[in-house]
Amino acid sequence: MNAVEDLEYSKFVLNLKKILFNIDFKTRIIKENEIRFNTYSKTLARFYNEIFNIPLGPKTNIKIPEIIENTPVLLKSCLRGIIDTDFSLAFKNRGKRKNFYPVLMASFGNKIIMESVKRAFDSLGFKTSSFVAKKYDKRYNKSSFGYQITLNGKDNIELWWKLIGSHNPRLMTRYSTWKKFGHVSPHLSIKERIEMLK
Description:
Elements (H helix, E strand, L loop, with lengths): L6 H15 L4 E5 L3 E5 L3 H11 L13 H4 L2 H15 L1 E5 L8 E8 L2 H13 L4 E10 L4 E11 H11 L5 H13 L8 H7 L2
Antiparallel strand pairs: 1-2, 3-4, 4-6, 5-6
């Protein structure tokens, strides 16, 4: 999550975690602008491991747990959380003057989670695209591969909003600005979008 655009959403997540687990999480900002939550609880780690089959060690091969994948209401909620934290909503101009064409997209560090998320979207009637993209990080002079998934076009975006929705103001204001004006400038900040929607 971005430390600027996702600031309000991070507060929502912290409060939700407190309600669900009665555990205090600490907020860390890393890589200049990325928000992460940390806590140290063996009970919570065991819960994730035993109920959702999430490994205790490195999370390199995780996927959406079967108990969630097989329960539509849980799957929609799970996808909402994944979208709110990992996806971005951009608007392309496609050769026109204004950025009108919506694209909901994310890049994951491994193929397994990407395929799991794609399968979840497909099961709900979305039309998805996926591909592998090579990324270069100039800070560390290192290349890596990202497994990307995209939901392109108006029909996908309207279906996302109808079936899943969002709790993240970053995405909510982008979607609402697009609905109101028919296009969204890539340079608008969240504060500017909020002002435009008043």
